[in-house]
Each structure stands twice: as structure tokens, then as C-alpha cells.
Amino acid sequence: MASAPLQSQSTTAKGPASGDTPVVPPSATGTTTQAAMVKKTAPKSDYNPADVSPQRRVQRSYSVRLWSVRHSRLLEWVYGRFADTFLLLHPLWKAIGYGRVEAPVKFVEKRVKGLMFDCRMCGQCILSSTGMSCPMNCPKQLRNGPCGGVRANGNCEVEPDMPCVWVKAWEGSRTMVRGDAILNVQNPVDQSLRETSAWLRVTAQAAAAREQAKASSDMGAAA
Ligand code: SF4
Question: For residue 118, which atom of ligand 1 is closest to its CA?
Fold first, then answer.
């Protein structure tokens, strides 16, 4: 896939380019952010849910997610072995039927990745390209780098207690063997794949690619 820089406005996962004038996020300059404006115009209410962020996540839930980013290199290795094993089992999945194994695999995938990465089951996992920091945890669900509202302390503009997932993604990617995959431009998320198994999709696609390559080489040998 072609490499390209992440979004270059304001604070980015790459940080300010050398030689460029550093761009300061709105929150650091005292400029009113979009989140502040939304909060200001929100209807007044006596009910303020305790200890709950706008997206109903409590701060302590970030700790496992952050652990995963800190151990991105180990998880990259584990994920690689896991993907190989799943691909090895392709004949079994095929014999049983991908449709039949989907429910149990999805059950496990949702819980394991939910615990480790706060996975939202987008069905198109790009953790290996984002330093093991799930981009779907970005309130704006950006898949190609941070917005211009990252706070001076590296936290999210919308959820001030939450470290920006793209700042963490950059940190995680720096320790990974294939960390530069973070520079790949990602397609927009396909919402029709929500709540489907990324594990099975990747396995089936890899198996199809492998079979196609084998068929091509057989044809080449026969010619
Ligand atoms: S990228 Fe998608 S599948 Fe991967 S952890 Fe995030 S929500 Fe889950």
C-alpha cells in the first residue's frame, strides 16, 4: 500500500515537521474548541451522570488499552503467530463453514479485543498499523491520524481525560517491527462490516490470496 503522511494540520502523530513553524492546538492558545462550544450550547440539566464520559467510558478502562500500546511489539509478534494459526486452520473453517463458526469466533474476538484494546468491532481491524491503539476509540473515529484538537498534554479534545488514541498509536508504532505501516492511508470505515469478525475476514482473504498465487504459479509452470 502506498505510504503517505498523516494529516498534517496542527498536532499530528508525526509531530511538527522539522523546519516548520510548530502549530499549537486551539486548546493551548486559548481559542474556543468545538467541544467547548458544544458544551456551552448544551441544554442545562440537573442530571449530570457521575464518573461517566460523554461516550460512557470510565477512565480506569483506559489502563488495559494503554498497557497494550506499551507492549505493542510483543502483541505484534503474538498477533502474527495467531494469524498464522488461524490461516493454518482455514481448511477446518472451510469444512465447518465460515458462516457456522462466525458466532463463536465473534464471541471470543469481541471479548478478547474488547478487554485488550476497547475494540468496537468495526470488522476491519487495523491495529497492526496503529501501534495497537484502536482508532475507533477516537470520538471522531478518525482512521488516518489525529484531528487538530489534540490538547497540549496529548489528551483528546472531546474527552479531556482520555489520551488521544493517535498520540498513543504513534508511540506504539515506534516500538513495532512494522511500525511504519502507520503511514499507510486507510480507507474510510465500511459501516456495513460492523459487528463482524475481522479475524475470519483476514483469514479468508489471506487463504484466497494464497490459493490465487498457487493457481498462477501452477499455470506458469504448465505454460
Ligand atoms: S480497528 Fe476495529 S476491529 Fe480492530 S480493535 Fe479497533 S474496532 Fe476492533
Answer: 5
